[in-house]
Amino acid sequence: MSRRKSIATKQIRADHWDAHEVVIIRSLNTEDEEQIQDEIASVNANSQVHLHTGRVKRLTLQRGIVSWTLTDDQNRPLPLNEQSIRGLDRADSKFIFDEIEAISAPLSAEEKKESTTSATHGIEVVATASHSK
Asked: Which domain of life is it from (predicted)?
């Protein structure tokens, strides 16, 4: 089975953005997924677990956006921070989220065919005898 070997990056641009506006995204890895999942749950003082599934898109954007040249209505650069991500137009956040999901997806059948990586049988655990005196 083939796999991605490194974090991929990609420059994206939506058709409705100004010509100078681009976003650089990266693929997500296991650590990113763990961080996102950990941050969507909380436990209150009564030990009740609450899931905040509405945070998934924002947390994905925060982890997957490397940089951007987005600007506000007065053409001032938007800082890349949580507040700016929260303030993105819904269509923009969906576009960026979908692109991060696509670049993070498992290899397609065609990509697997083109891969030169051969499959391994996993980690071999070898038991060693302990020598006691």
From this structure: Bacteria
Cβ neighbours around 92 below 10 Å, total: 18
- Comparing CA positions, the residue from 119, 93, 90, 103 lying closest to residue 1 is 119
How many Cβ atoms from other residues are within 10 Å of residue 58's Cβ?
Answer: 17
- What domains can be seen in the chain, in order of their start residue? 9-114 (3.30.2220)
d(CA 78, CA 29): 26
Secondary structure (DSSP) of 31-95 = HHHHHHHHHTEEE-TT--EEE-GGGHHHHHHHHHEEEE--B-TTSPBPPSSHHHHHTS-HHHHHH
Q: Residues 56-110: pLDDT tens digits?
A: 999 999 999 999 999 999 999 999 999 999 999 999 999 999 999 999 988 777 7
User: CB neighbours of 130 closer than 8 A, spacing ≥ 6?
Assistant: none
